[in-house]
Write a structure and sequence with these properties.
By secondary structure, the chain is an all-alpha fold. The chain has a single domain, classed as Tetratricopeptide repeat domain (Serine Threonine Protein Phosphatase 5, Tetratricopeptide repeat). It contains 5 helices and no strands. The radius of gyration is 18 Å and the shape is flat. The N and C termini lie far apart (50 Å).
């Protein structure tokens, strides 16, 4: 059970702040995916605490590091961070919508939709490639 799930928000925040300190070190520069996940977790914690503005702040930081993952924006990228990046866009859109900032919400919704469409396109291309190989082999 995590500190967040049992309601120990302040303890969770202290632990995550320690993680941030490590990630800001020279070693941390090598791990944009870990920064992405850490900032997403902090954003989730602030959301649970009802601090939506802080949640948005950390979601945007998470997105910055997530988009820094090499080739993440490429259509053919299939790494494990691709779907969470789309979810981060959606979470930002939801948070902005909750704040009544509908234009910002729409902007992030459109970004999520475009990235999701590129994932589907890449997936269908890979499936067709696999099917062609299978048909040719038989």
């Amino acid at each position: 059970m995590t500190a967040i799930s049992i309601g120990e928000h302040e303890q969770a925040l202290l632990i995550l702040e320690q993680c941030i300190a490590i990630l800001r070190s020279p070693t941390g520069l090598e791990y944009p995916a870990l920064k992405f996940k850490t900032f997403n977790t902090i954003a989730h914690l602030y959301n649970v605490m009802g601090q939506v503005k802080m949640s948005i702040k950390f979601l945007r930081k998470a997105l910055k590091f997530g988009l820094g993952i090499p080739n993440i924006s490429q259509v053919a990228y299939t790494g494990p961070e691709k779907i969470p990046i789309i979810e981060t866009y959606i979470n930002i859109a939801n948070a902005y919508s909750f704040q009544g900032m509908n234009l910002e919400a729409l902007d992030y919704s459109e970004k999520a939709t475009k990235m999701a469409a590129s994932c589907l396109e890449a997936s269908s291309d890979r499936v067709m490639h696999i099917l062609n190989i299978t048909v040719i082999a038989h």
